[in-house]
Amino acid sequence: MFDVKTILPAEADNQYQGSSIALYFFVLFVVIMTCRSIVHMFFSGFGLHEIANLVHFDGEPDPSRIIHLFFSLWGFSQLIFCLICWVGIWKYRSLVPAFYMLWMLEWGGRAFLYPIFFVRLSDGAYSKGIAPGAEFAPHVFLCLVLFFLLSLKRRKPKPVLMSGTKEEN
Q1: Is 22 exposed, middle or buried (0-12, 13-18, 19+ CB in 10 A)?
Q2: Alpha-carbon gap, residue 22 to 31, rounded angstroms
């Protein structure tokens, strides 16, 4: 039923063995993550202040310029990962379970490690509210786990009918 060997197959090819719904969800997820990455990279001020709800810092020299730069670089690194996922979707679908694992690491860390080990930024000093990425991270993580498990589920092979025979129900 679930084949753990499909996480890192011996040969990376376009022969995806998991559930079709897990593949379709993965494509949708990568579309959303690609759009998110583009916003973070090219519209860092909007993504940082309007979506992530971080406050604008004033000072001399202007600290917001360097903050926007780092936010944009983060968006660029996200976009690189999304591009690698797109290559996987088009040419190496057998690696979809491995990509799910990597996304689970990112979203699991965001959901569970950062709130425990790092300062919460939603105390009002740095933000105007909780960012959607932080608020929905546990839900996204659980969805990723579910679809990861479905990506490990082997499809039943279709029965091969001999010519001249009828399939019995």
Answers
A1: buried
A2: 14
Domain ranges of the chain: 17-152
Scanning the structure block, which residue is given the tokens 């973070």?
Answer: 40
- CA-based end-to-end distance of the chain: 23
- Whether 56 and 136 have beta carbons less than 8 Å apart is answered as no
pTM of the model: 0.83
**At 153, phi and psi to the nearest 5?**
-75, 125
- Walking along the chain (169 residues) 10 residues at a time, the average pLDDT comes out as 79 93 98 95 81 80 87 93 98 97 94 74 70 86 97 76 60
DSSP calls for the chain:
-B-GGGSS-SS--S---S-HHHHHHHHHHHHHHHHHHHHHHH-HHIIIIIIS-BPPP--SS-HHHHHHHHHHHHHHHHHHHHHHHHHHHHH-GGGHHHHHHHHHHHHHIIIIIHHHHS--STTSSSBSS--HHHHSHHHHHHHHHHHHHHHHBPPPPPPPPPTT-----
